[in-house]
């Protein structure tokens, strides 16, 4: 088996993912609070309290701590002369090889949170699929994009 | 290569918002009708607040549509660099897209009525990566000159590659553009007569009717129809036939307008299709990007000795693809 792709994504990416996790937990918290209120008000069975609390705690632990960590550990990418290799996954690790020849165009996306950390997502579109490398440092993303487009051009036209 | 940053024409803000507004007209009509026209701007009337409320909601929607149109126009920029078309847009979520000229599958110019008044053109750029059946880049409205610049840049990028390969080959060989096919008025009429657009029109009518089902008292109509049927099957048949003819006539006119001045040319290894009476369309497709050619003969057209030639490209996206595909050649 070949060695893993070289680059990891930025450490700040982990922070951003944690932030997403926090937001998600807050959202769940609101739902859970509503459920608890409903239980209290309409005298639903009391096990609903436990479920609500359990869900919030689980989400807090998993989506703000564990999952981002594993995901970040797993995420790797490497841009070689003729191909791009990405590896990602939470439990199931997936490695994808994108031949340069097949690259159609490249997008970068940057939302408000990512912008605050100077990060950006880069999406590589082929004829059939779109592959996204998340949370790259913006300079790195721009450089990568430039390299991909340069290499993609050299390759003979193909759909 | 020019690195100046281009914007869309200000009119595009209006076009974008009117497009959004257009989709809001129907709900407005529904609101007015379902309220039974009980509207009043008299402060003392009972209906005053309801009127204000309904129109208020619609007004907010309209303002949002307008603002989003302006925002889109203000934030959208495009430029050419390193043989790529680059666009940047988005207010909060900033998106950049980079398309190498070599990867462009087709380049479409559309001139709607709005565009024609101001001498503008809508440009759609497609690559094979068409994911959600939308063009990769859509420049809502730019000046024709600016649109020509895009093509110029594309050609220049291509020529540079050629130059590297063989220097002596001259770049500018202005071959007189051969027209492959130009649809004569007679052919156009035949196309319109045999067009299968009836189904489309009928389903459109059906859609409208089903939308109106709340308003139209079907029960009564049905009872009347029952009486009507008693008068005779002949009358029923006649009505059906008349409505079919009307539907066919509508599709006839639509086809006539859409395919007016249909011309196919080959220029610079590119297939160029132009058509349209009110809304002019122009589709550019590099020849080496064509994936398949199909010849379709429907029974009616076989009678006249005509066939449809369909050119498929990888960038082809559903509806739009139809435009680029259908070309009609006499087969003989």
TrEMBL record, chain A:
It comes from the Bacteria. The keyword Zinc does not apply. Residues 72-148 form the YdbS-like PH domain. The keyword Cell inner membrane does not apply. InterPro entries: YdbS-like_PH (IPR005182). The chain crosses the membrane at residues 21-41, 47-67. Keywords: Membrane, Transmembrane, Transmembrane helix. This is PH domain-containing protein.
């Amino acid at each position: 088996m070949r060695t893993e792709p070289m680059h990891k994504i930025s450490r700040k990416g982990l922070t951003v993912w944690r932030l997403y996790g926090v937001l998600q937990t807050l959202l769940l918290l609101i739902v859970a609070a509503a459920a608890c209120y409903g239980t209290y008000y309409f005298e639903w069975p009391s096990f609903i309290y436990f479920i609500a609390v359990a869900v919030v705690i689980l989400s807090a632990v998993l989506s703000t701590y564990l999952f981002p960590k594993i995901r970040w550990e797993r995420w790797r990418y490497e841009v070689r002369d003729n191909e791009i290799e990405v590896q990602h996954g939470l439990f199931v690790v997936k490695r994808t090889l994108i031949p340069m020849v097949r690259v159609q165009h490249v997008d970068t996306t940057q939302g408000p949170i990512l912008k605050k950390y100077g990060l950006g997502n880069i999406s590589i579109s082929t004829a059939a699929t779109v592959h996204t490398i998340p949370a790259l440092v913006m300079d790195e993303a721009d450089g990568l994009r430039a390299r991909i487009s340069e290499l993609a051009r050299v390759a003979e036209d193909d759909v | 290569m020019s690195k100046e940053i281009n914007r869309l024409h200000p009119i595009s803000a209006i076009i974008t918002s009117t497009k959004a507004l257009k989709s809001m007209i129907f709900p407005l009509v529904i609101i007015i009708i379902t309220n039974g026209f009980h509207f009043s701007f008299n402060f003392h009337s009972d209906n005053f607040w309801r009127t204000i409320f309904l129109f208020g909601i619609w007004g907010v929607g309209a303002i949002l549509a307008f603002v989003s149109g302006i925002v889109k126009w203000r934030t959208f920029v495009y430029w050419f660099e390193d043989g790529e078309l680059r666009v940047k847009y988005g207010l909060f979520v900033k998106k950049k897209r980079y398309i190498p000229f070599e990867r462009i599958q087709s380049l479409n110019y559309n001139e709607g009525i709005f565009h024609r008044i101001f001498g503008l053109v809508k440009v759609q750029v497609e690559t094979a990566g068409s994911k959600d059946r939308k063009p990769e880049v859509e420049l809502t409205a730019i000046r024709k000159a600016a649109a020509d610049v895009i093509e110029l840049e594309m050609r220049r990028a291509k020529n540079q590659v050629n130059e590297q390969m063989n220097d002596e080959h001259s770049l500018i060989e202005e071959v007189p553009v051969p027209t492959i096919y130009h649809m004569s008025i007679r052919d156009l009429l035949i196309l319109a007569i045999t067009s299968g657009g009836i189904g489309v029109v009928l389903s459109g009518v059906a859609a409208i009717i089903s939308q109106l089902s709340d308003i139209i008292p079907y029960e009564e109509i049905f009872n009347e129809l029952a009486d009507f049927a008693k008068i005779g099957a002949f009358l029923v048949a006649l009505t059906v036939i008349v409505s079919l003819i009307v539907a066919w006539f509508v599709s006839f006119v639509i086809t006539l307008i859409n395919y007016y001045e249909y011309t196919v040319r080959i220029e610079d290894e590119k297939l160029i299709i132009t058509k349209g009476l009110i809304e002019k369309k122009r589709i550019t497709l590099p020849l080496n990007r064509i994936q398949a050619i199909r010849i379709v003969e429907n029974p009616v057209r076989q009678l006249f000795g005509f066939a449809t030639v369909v050119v498929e490209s990888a960038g082809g996206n559903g509806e739009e693809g139809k435009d680029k595909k259908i070309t009609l050649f006499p087969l003989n």
